[in-house]
Design goal:
The structure holds two protein chains of two kinds. Helix content of chain A is 0%, strand content 50%. By secondary structure, chain A is mainly beta. In chain A, strands 2, 4, 5, 6, 9, 10 and 11 form a seven-stranded mixed β-sheet that branches. Chain A has a four-stranded antiparallel β-sheet with strand order 1-3-8-7, with no helix packed on it. In chain B, strands 2, 4, 5, 6, 9, 10 and 11 form a seven-stranded mixed β-sheet that branches. In chain B, a hairpin with a 5-residue loop joins strand 4 (34-39) and strand 5. Chain A binds chain B through residues 34, 36, 38, 43-46, 49, 55, 87, 89, 91, 94-101, and chain B through 35, 37, 44-47, 50, 59-62, 95, 100-106.
Chain lengths: 107, 113
């Protein structure tokens, strides 16, 4: 199985900050990666697929990059609604696997 | 508007069975792979299974192989997950997703005596 390791596991930031979350795969997955956002008590939501392609309706403050084994999610100009848990998810091979999550909290 | 509505969750005893359903609307259901993903209380996300457009291909995480069966009825725009031999480790919110792009609100399964 492909393991995805996210860092950091938790992150404290202020409104207006720019933050970056990384996801490292245990083997190459090309660009077969989703970034998923989950707010407390809510269903997950895919922000982007193909490592960098925004889902419809997702603001451009979210950006993704990477290919192979190393990926990043960057969120610019943090707003209160952005504080959530973020997961990476690979769909290159079975079983699909998730990173352990990064909890983004307000400082 | 894309909608995925799960149902069928509830409290079941260890060793019991449950069938989850997911009713889809707002898109051409028969054109998409569909997945089930679960989340145990306070834990991360775990992919469970998926099925291709005509139901001829199915994949499962090892921990549910032989116990869970994913299926679909394109005429009813519905996805199903038959869960047998349930254990406490299967307790989770189960999400139906359209190809991991769009997610339903989930249905809670609790396995307890």
């Amino acid at each position: 199985d492909i393991q995805l390791t996210q860092s950091p596991s938790s992150l404290s930031a202020s409104v207006g900050d720019r933050v970056t979350i990384t996801c490292r795969a245990s083997q190459g997955i090309s660009n077969s990666l989703h970034w998923i956002q989950q707010k407390p008590g809510k269903a997950p939501k895919s922000l982007m697929y193909g490592a960098s392609i925004l889902q419809s309706g997702v603001p451009s403050k979210f950006s993704g990059s990477g290919s192979g084994t190393d990926f990043t999610l960057t969120i610019s100009s943090l707003q209160p609604e952005d504080f959530a848990t973020y997961y990476c998810l690979q769909y290159k091979s079975y079983p699909r696997t998730f990173g352990q999550g990064t909890k983004l909290e307000i400082k | 508007e894309v909608q995925l509505v799960e149902s069928g969750g509830g409290l079941v005893q260890p060793g019991g069975s449950l069938r989850l359903s997911c009713e889809a609307s707002g898109f051409t259901f028969s054109s998409y792979w569909m997945d089930w993903v679960r989340q145990a209380p306070g834990k991360g996300l775990e992919w469970v299974a998926n099925i291709n457009q005509d139901g001829s291909e199915k994949y499962y995480v090892d921990s549910v192989k032989g116990r869970f069966t994913i299926s679909r009825d394109n005429g009813k725009n519905s996805l199903y997950l038959q869960m047998n031999s349930l254990t406490a480790e299967d307790s989770a919110v189960y999400y139906c997703t359209r190809q991991l792009d769009f997610w339903g609100q989930g249905t809670l399964v609790t396995v307890s005596s």
